[in-house]
Design goal:
Helix content is 62%, strand content 1%. The chain has 425 residues and is mostly helical. It folds into two domains: 225 residues, no CATH class; 112 residues, no CATH class. The protein has a two-stranded antiparallel sheet. Helix 1 packs parallel to helix 3 and helix 5 crosses helix 14. The longest helix is centred in the C-terminal third of the chain and has 36 residues. The radius of gyration is 24 Å and the shape is globular. The N terminus is likely disordered.
Length: 425
Amino acid sequence: MIKISFKTGLFLVMIFTFIALQAQQRFPKPEFESGYEQPDTTTPEPRAAALEWFDVLVLIAVLAVASYFIFKRRSRRGILWLSVFTLVYFGFYRNGCICPIGSIQNVTLAIFDPAYKISLTVLLFFLIPLVAALFYGRTFCAAACPLGAIQDLIAIQPVSVSSWVRKTLSFIPHVYLGLAVLFAATGTDFIICRYDPFVGIFRMDGPYTMIVLGIAFLLLGMFFGRPYCRIFCPYGVLLSWMSRFSGKHLTITPSECINCKLCSNSCPYDAIEAPTSEKLRTEAAVRSSMKNYILFGLLVPIWIIAGGLAVSGAHVFLSKAHPDVYLSELLIAHPELKEDTENLDIQAFLESGESMDQLVENASLVRMKFKKGGWFLGGYLGLVLGIMIMNQFLLRKRTGYEPHKGDCYSCGRCMDYCPVDKKFN
């Protein structure tokens, strides 16, 4: 679905991959007479405050230029080259950090842990794309997200998938978002950053398994557009919420739709909704739809309670991801491991001076946090599931093809294929 000229962007990115600037150490390596060699880091070095603010300005500028290309110029080509810049700057040069997607965890931890202080720049990276989506739709996904850009550029021959598959897969990002918030709130882990499939590619370093996972996502993305964005991205959930209420959103055509279906065929993300059929516009169909909508709406509280019971009941299993819980269970089951000098976690615990009773008590407190958090996570997932079922019966009357305001990434491909747009230009 991508024109041959778009491959030029992909070729340019491949070149930049090899010549991308590498982060330099700010201070020279210390000299050790013992022959110690300082290991290479796998995370980007901290930046000066002025440079972090510069990143914020770049983000704002990219969002502003993306909105200009979407609403004023209606230019897919402009969005494409802007996403190439984003991939080079925020991806390969900034090593995928700061990332609005991962900032979900920083914001969550700052809320639940008074000892954790979040920087203003990280908070702005979290908020600015959401505010932009509230006004102009998912312009961040269109050209400001390096994860989305690298997937968008390799969508060579994407195929369409059935509606029920898309709706089923769309539930997974909610689960991922909920788990990321729960794990961050309990101080367990930042799972979004740990399992980012593209950060290893951006930094040209990382665990072997994550590099393989990133390559697998790119290969899949050649035939299933933006697999990470559509199946996993937790920040996409928040952007989708904001975009649904956006005051202004990308439109396929500047005039009346002629129902040629070219835009729907061109969208690699199945984000364009077809006109409502005449059969569904009848009075009987409307009454039946409303009846089912209300009926399943009344079942939403049951879904919420059931979800809360299910997830809170799994708190023992979920809490094992926390290092204190894992270590306490390990030492209780195998006390002889205290003599294992090769296990760094155990040796660090023994050298900390903390008693076994304290470790067990800490683990118990963590389990209680997971039990309480499990109620909220399960209730949220039950609410989402209930609303998704309700929406199957919500009748929306459309006379032409329209982008789904929550699912559309504002990539602009449909504008290029619309013959009405060409006539007006």
